[in-house]
Amino acid sequence: MSASAPPSSTAAPPVIARHFRQILMWPLRLLPLRSGDQVQRHSEALAAITENNPWREQRDEFTGSPADFHERHYREFVTFLPHVQRFLYGQGRSSATLRGYGESPIRVFRRHDIRTVRLGCEDGSALDLTVQHIDLYFFYDVDVAILVLELYADDIPLPRVQELLFRFGRAFPAKWNDSGEGGPGEGCGPASQCMRTVQWLDAQGQVLAESDYHDRERYLRHVWEHRASAIGRHWEFMLRPLVLHHSEDEGNIRYRQLEYHRMPKMTYLSFDDPFALTREDFVRLGQATQPDDGRPLPYSEEVMSHFERTACYDRFWVPGRRSDNASTRVICTGPAMVMVGKHGLAGYSDPQNGLLGEFRHQYFLIGLIAHFHRASLLMLMDRLVVAVSLLDADDVDSRRRFKRGIRSTMEIFLRFNHRYWFGEVSKQSMAKDLFDMWSRNLGNEALYNELRNEILDMDNYLEADDSRRQNETLLRLTVVTIFGLVGTIVTGFLGMNIFDGPPATLIGKVGAVVVVAVPTLLLTFYTLKKSSALSEFMDAVSDDTLTTRQKFRSFLRIWRPRTQADRRRARRVGGLDTRPSPSADGRRQSP
Questions:
Q1: Triad 377, 380, 383: Cα angle to 5°
Q2: Is 497 in a helix, a strand, or coil?
Q3: Domain final residue pick, 86, 106, 126
Q4: CB distance 253 to 160 below 8 Å
Q5: Is residue 265 within 8 Å of 335, Cβ to Cβ?
Q6: Is residue 464 in a domain?
Q7: Is residue 175 situated within a structural domain?
Q8: Residue 92 carries which DSSP code?
Q9: d(CA 66, CA 69)
Q10: Is 374 within a domain?
């Protein structure tokens, strides 16, 4: 396969990437299949779809024949610590093994119909990339799925590699050119930061789906209508039968985006001379910025130095020595990870025993865990935001739904914390360092602490609200008991037959019961209604610092109508009302 390079301002031949391999990882939030269920089994729902479903569950080497289990799989397994091994591979199923943990909580589905990706480049040329595999990862008890697309090509000029890192892997366009180069039927310029076209091809070279980045009207209208971004038609095709939540498509398994429209990616590059790459080349690769146009980067020396300190893993990179065993550099900014090394070197390019094999397996799994952590935390934070936004403090049913939603999210977070949250995944130096760098640059620990504090605040609120309601109930019961004590003493002292009279008939006895029961019930409910005011009057009577006149005023306030401001003040004291109160000029102020 050949590809023409974009025009360069220099006459020097471009550096050629002898092997280019990229893995896109797109985390998505899955919407509940059934409301009220703690565990949503999206993977089972996908497996149950038999019509127009290209996804088939992928069994790993541990569930197949022992003849298919090789040393590479063994080296991958022993890279990780035992608790991570149980997460990735589950527990053994031999008769001598205790079934305490069970199978892996990860289920993987794969589709085989898309074999090639054809990209329309900025200069008008086309570039074909071979698809290694397309997988969809599901995680038990976490409403997150991660789409994984691995593809590769050979002999690609470095400027073209930079263009692929910058333009490919975008869920939707951020803006459009005003060049007047119209897309089909739209009369607008192409998306300025995306590939001109993206096509999925089958084994026969037939186009299965194509991007619609040029259709500016569709993206604008979708945001106007749904307050959410649409995604490219080709990505919609790849994810079916899963459908976008904010769309008119029919489907039981629905998803929504979690964060930025640029998908996280891992890139492997091999060069004849990796030392030929400049400092700015590494920055462009690591940050996936625009290709080199002959002008220097507009970054200060402080920014460049900070990038090298925080994003470059130089354990095996010594440019001054120019030695093959010190020619590998890894860049990890969080959303992007790039591995650069020498082509033809067995320790780097060997697909079984070199870093190429480790890149596709061990380091891919490390990146998958890091992005899964971030996606899960974002999903849980999204659930909290939705629960709070739907809360109506004046609606009893809304408050009840809010409490159920918060408690459900707290339970999911507790299970996630003990089942999936790892501070360390490996003791091997490179694997350990890369996971630490990945997690740090993604901000996972800070996100985890923020979510944990929010959940603790919610838990404290629920406990305070329950305590307040219990105190109010006890207060009302106390008031009713005190005022009912008067009647109890009177009837107990005088006896039940206060008035003498002739023996009553059955109807008379029933009537007497009704005559006594109805006023008693009315008085009880009226006492409950006035319990708050009565409790204030009782407090005033017991306060020796108040005068008789002030106590009498407190008695009169029992029958004074309570205003909306009084009720709002009572709710705010109880912690239920989060809305701002009106000021004197009619505007709302924060409490």
A1: 150
A2: coil
A3: 106
A4: no
A5: yes
A6: yes
A7: no
A8: -
A9: 5
A10: yes
- What is the number of structural domains in the chain? 2
- What tens digit of pLDDT does each residue of 353-400 get? 899 999 999 999 999 999 999 999 999 988 888 888 877 777 777 777
Q: What's at 516, amino acid-wise?
A: V
Question: Both tokens of residue 457?
Answer: 């605040």
Q: What is the pLDDT of residues 448-477, one digit of tens each?
A: 999 998 888 887 877 777 777 777 777 667
Q: In DSSP terms, which residues pair with 200 in a beta bridge? A: 117, 209
| Stretch 511-530: mean pLDDT | 70
Q: Judge whether 399 lies within some domain.
A: yes
Beta-bridge partners for 110: 56, 135
> What does pTM read for this prediction?
0.78
Q: Which residues contact 64 (CB under 8 A, 6 or more apart)?
A: none
Range of the domain at 378: 370-492
Query: pLDDT digit string (tens) for 158-178?
Result: 999 999 999 999 999 988 987
- Up-side HSE of residue 475: CA atoms within 13 Å toward CB? 17
Tokens of 95: 């008769």
Position of tokens 């985006």?
257
Q: What's the helix, strand, coil split of the chain in %, to 5?
A: 45, 15, 40
The secondary structure of 174-228, three-state, reads CCECCCCCCCCCCCCCCECCCCCEEEEECCCCCEEEECCCCCHHHHHHHHHHHCC
Predicted local confidence at residue 95, as pLDDT: 39
- 10 Å Cβ neighbour count for 582? 13
Closest to 42 in 3D by CA, of 238, 256, 254, 247: 254
Residue 566 has pLDDT above 80, yes or no: no
pLDDT digits (tens, 9 = 90+) for 203-230: 999 999 999 999 999 999 999 998 889 9
On the question of pLDDT at 583 being above 90, the answer is no
Which of 442, 463, 492 is the C-terminal boundary of a domain? 492
- The pLDDT of 55-72, averaged and rounded, is 78
Parallel/antiparallel/unpaired status of strands 56-57 and 106-111:
antiparallel
Residue 498: pLDDT band (50, 70, 90) is very low
Buried b or exposed e, range 139-164, using 16+ CB within 10 angstroms:
bbbbbbbbbbbbbbbbebbbbbbbbb
End-to-end CA distance of the chain: 66
Tokens of 456: 């603790």
CA distances from 81 to 153, 223, 241, 424, 425 (A): 33, 45, 36, 8, 6
The interaxial angle of helices 279-287 and 158-167, nearest 10 deg, is 30
